[in-house]
Amino acid sequence: MSDWYFDTAATSHMSSLAGNFPPSVLRPFSSSITVGNGAQLPVTYRAQTLIPTANSYLHLNDVLVSPSLIKNLISVRHLNRDNNVSIEFDPSGFSIKDLPTRAEMLRCESSSDLYPLRLPHHQALTASSATSLWHQWLGHPGNPVTNKILQSFC
């Protein structure tokens, strides 16, 4: 899975690759994204995915997929609202905290000008792991049942 970057100005989560998602969560979607210079980029799909943390998962809902994008972007506003979390940026990186308890869920360091989401290798979410994750949560139902459940969330 490609790196994701936090963007405080993004109005939606956005990805350049449909391959970042299991096929079962991709929904054809015709729209466009307006970028900073006013250009319109075509959107081909809408999807969702999960970001693993130490104790739970963060939901990226309604991710717009546009092959013309250069970076995968996480809308800070949507992540905060959809997951009831806060994100604290500092010179060394950022922390995502559960809003009610203030417990740190995820910490990522960054030495660059951007804030990339870099998960520890053991937490990395691959394109097929979202289906596997649902499979584990639901007591090992078969793939048709898992895919049907995933489709109901799109």
Structure summary:
This protein has helices at about 75-85, 130-135, 145-150, and strands at about 5, 15, 25-35, 40-50, 55-65, 70-75, 85-90, 95-100, 105-110, 115.
Task: Describe the model.
- The chain is α+β, with helices and mostly antiparallel strands and 154 residues long.
- Helix content is 18%, strand content 39%.
- The protein has one domain (4-152): Acid Proteases (Cathepsin D, subunit A, domain 1, Beta Barrel), CATH 2.40.70.
- The chain is built from 3 helices and 10 strands.
- The strands form 3 sheets. It has a 4-stranded mixed beta sheet with strand order 2-5-4-3, with helices on one face. Strands 6-1-10 form a 3-stranded mixed beta sheet. Strands 7-8-9 form a 3-stranded antiparallel beta sheet, covered by helices on one side.
- Strand 4 (40-52) and strand 5 form a beta hairpin.
Poorly predicted spans: 122-128, 134-138
What do the pLDDT scores average to?
83
Q: Which range best describes the helical content: under 10%, 10-25%, 25-40%, 40-55%, 55-70% or over 70%?
A: 10-25%
CATH superfamily: Acid Proteases
Q: How much β-strand is present in the residues?
A: 35-45%
Order of helices and strands: EEEEEEHEEEEHH
CATH fold assignment: Cathepsin D, subunit A, domain 1
What is the count of β-strands? 10
Radius of gyration: 16 Å
Q: How many separate helices?
A: 3
> What is the approximate shape?
globular
Largest sheet: 4 strands, mixed
Q: What's the CATH class label?
A: Mainly Beta
Span from first to last CA? Answer: 20 Å
